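Lab notebook, bench 4. Still working through the backlog of constructs that have no structural model yet. Next entry is a single chain of 262 residues. Request: give me the structure tokens for it.
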Amino acid sequence: MAPVLTSLTPIQSHSGVSLTITGTGLTGTTKVTFGTKSVVPTSVTATTVVCVIPSLCAGQVPVTVTTSGIVSNSLSFFYIGPPSCGPVDPAIGPGAASAVTINGSGLLTATGVTFGAVGAGTGLTVVSDTQLTVTTPVHGAFTGSTDTVNVTVATAGGGSIPVGATSQYTFYDAPTVTAVAPASGASGSSTTVTGTNLVGVTGITFTPVGGGAAVAAVDFTSISATQLQVTVPVLAAGAYDIQVTTPGGTSAVVPADQFTVV
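Model written out:
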């Protein structure tokens, strides 16, 4: 009796997944062939053959079985290749939830994005097979000023494999200002700002206490994660709040950040 195949379950998947083949005359099946690649079945009955899907090239392949030397008819199976993840844009951001774009390949069937131990992203939107958008999870307590994690994408083709910086995202803790010394001086003078998470500084502003237009400092130097030196911009006499901006956000206004221009 020649083997006859009637169905495959699932009809699309990836390597390592069990495939169940249903049909008739399957007793004695010795191999299952996917295109040009064959595997030995893990179980065989008169009506079912089970095997593990091998690694294949992405796309449609014919599946046949060989029973007592006789090759069956073929059924189509769609092999979904594993995704690749990266680059992530932007690759840095705050501990708060933030929208990012992930580029890569094989993303069309994406079901989730994980940011290391921080957790799963939300609001996943598949744009195309090479791009998706997602919102990062909220980072919990930091053990340092930054936390770099691997970003992985789960699809019907499996999970992406981290490939270093290209598939990583760095969370930045929010900066704070705890002291300014000296706390007064003329425009053009220098002052040292002390605080926390003063890494990756992208800007420093002087805003009049009580309200007014912020003025950006154009000359500043990072000393450490807790200190930086800044040159006071040209300002009218009065009290100003010094705020620091990093990828983690902008420091909150506090009494300790005040500088008086004399």
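Notes after review: The two ends are 101 Å apart (CA to CA). The domain at 4-79 is CATH 2.60.40.10 (Immunoglobulin-like). Flag for follow-up if needed.
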